[in-house]
Amino acid sequence: MSNYPSFQVYFRDRLTGAVTNAANVTVEVRDVTDDPACALLDETETDANGTVPGAAVDVAAGRTLRFTFKDENNGRCGSCLKVTV
After folding, report:
1. How far apart, in whole angstroms, are the C-alpha atoms of residue 1 and residue 17?
2. DSSP structure class, residue 84
3. Within a 13 Å sphere around the CA of 27, how many CA atoms are in the beta-carbon half?
4. pLDDT tens digits along 54-68
5. What is the pLDDT of residues 23-33, one digit of tens each?
6. pLDDT at position 16
């Protein structure tokens, strides 16, 4: 088991450059250390402030996780990488 801390995610408007919290969106968590197209590891949701809650995951420390999130109602999406501890 290892962990990742909580963190904020945002959407940036391509036309205006405005940044908004990615509030109340589903976040998929995948271990991409060895294979960028790997299977889904976990799924969570951001809160009203765009915070992804920290959690424990069933992978070794030092693994790279990719978090992908999308707002299907407005056609926005994003991703970020975190290393487990």
Report:
1. 38
2. -
3. 26
4. 999 999 999 999 999
5. 999 999 999 99
6. 92
Residue in this structure with the two tokens 């801390």, named with its chain if needed:
5
Asked whether the beta carbons of 6 and 51 are under 8 A apart, the reply is yes
Pairing of strands 64-71, 26-31: antiparallel
Judged against a pLDDT cut of 80, whether residue 37 lies above it is answered with no
Query: Phi/psi class of residue 79: alpha, beta or left (left: φ > 0; alpha: ψ in -120 to 50)?
Result: beta
Name the one residue in this structure whose structure tokens are 């992908």: 68
Give 64: exposed, middle or buried? Use CB within 10 Å, 0-12, 13-18, 19+.
middle
